[in-house]
Description:
Layout: H1 4-16, H2 25-30, E1 36-40, H3 45-49, E2 54-56, E3 60-64, E4 74-78, E5 84-90, E6 96-103, H4 104-109, H5 117-134, E7 144-149, E8 158-163, E9 166-171, H6 174-178, H7 180-188, E10 195-200, H8 202-207, E11 223-227, E12 230-234, H9 248-257, E13 262-266, H10 272-279, E14 284-289, H11 292-304, E15 312-316, H12 319-328, E16 333-338, H13 350-366, E17 368-378, H14 381-386, H15 389-400, E18 404-410, E19 429-435
Parallel strand pairs: 1-4, 9-10, 13-14, 13-16, 14-15, 16-17
Antiparallel strand pairs: 1-3, 2-6, 4-5, 5-6, 7-8, 8-9, 11-12, 17-19, 18-19
Helix pairs in contact: 1-5, 5-7, 9-10, 12-13, 13-15
Amino acid sequence: xxxxxxxxxxxxxxxxxxxxxxxxxxxxxxxxxxxxxxxxxxxxxxxxxxxxxxxxxxxxxxxxxxxxxxxxxxxxxxxxxxxxxxxxxxxxxxxxxxxxxxxxxxxxxxxxxxxxxxxxxxxxxxxxxxxxxxxxxxxxxxxxxxxxxxxxxxxxxxxxxxxxxxxxxxxxxxxxxxxxxxxxxxxxxxxxxxxxxxxxxxxxxxxxxxxxxxxxxxxxxxxxxxxxxxxxxxxxxxxxxxxxxxxxxxxxxxxxxxxxxxxxxxxxxxxxxxxxxxxxxxxxxxxxxxxxxxxxxxxxxxxxxxxxxxxxxxxxxxxxxxxxxxxxxxxxxxxxxxxxxxxxxxxxxxxxxxxxxxxxxxxxxxxxxxxxxxxxxxxxxxxxxxxxxxxxxxxxxxxxxxxxxxxxxxxxxxxxxxxxxxxxxxxxxxxxxxxx
Length: 436
């Protein structure tokens, strides 16, 4: 856990600066000269008072204060009658002009964090660590987990993934870049963390008005981690933060379903599902991915886990072409996993993405034996939030001449909490199907 003495000392200093009579947000804000006020349009405050942290520019009626706030400045956010609902960090460029950090009711309960990012970050990190500890993370057989999940941990734009002794910090908001030093300091204080790597989301930060360059990892190009008792080589310069920790509980399920089965893992990346299936007793596992770098890591993971090369193989090939060729050879598998890349990052491409998901899943269903199982995924936030994935899979079943039954519908692991007031934070859909 965090070094509690430092946390307590920091909060005590903040509390000492607030008099007993200035316990409300309005009172504390009045002592901050130059603090701008973002006034919302009539009727727009309810969604943000409910917990949605992303104040979009269309909800803003006016901004009071001179000089005008700059990106990264703290601002007071008020309803149409200028009653404060909270405070946040301003962005003069982004479509989200304020990311709310603390609501009025939270400020009343904890005035030590009012307009104090140092204290607020300390408190949010401490809460996140306590939550993961209650979930049993890390543990003897799993040292890969998400420590901070953006809006789900009330730190919109910040993700921290832990890989044993290494923490990868993913930044996708201007305020995160501004408070980089404080964030890195907090992460470095987490028990067991010896190295940190700052990974800026360059394209998203452009939309935030920042021009940043991606830094290369200061740690070793690869390092070893363990998840569900399976060992992996992870490259912090790989996809996402280097490893799909969100699929941990789904990989555990695949392991439990694989005994004596022939398993096909499509878009296998570095072999997460494949290795779990083999260790779960699969007769044979085939993993397919178009990335040579991923296939090379997957093959290294076979050696790392002392697995039988005769029972597992990884193939570098486009998964569409692989399945088409498999159908020509009349090849089928008992259990198929399909975890493709993001096809619909935004709503405007959702319809075209649905066609891609339908066609890909139709092929996957055809290479699954009748009576077999298919675990299929979408990591596209637009698809998940539209709730159109199941209808898309039904369309794929019609194309393939199969009937499907939905056995289970899940998402990311418990260490990826979602703020129900910000459903846009839900991105992963994982569906287990029976085929006949």
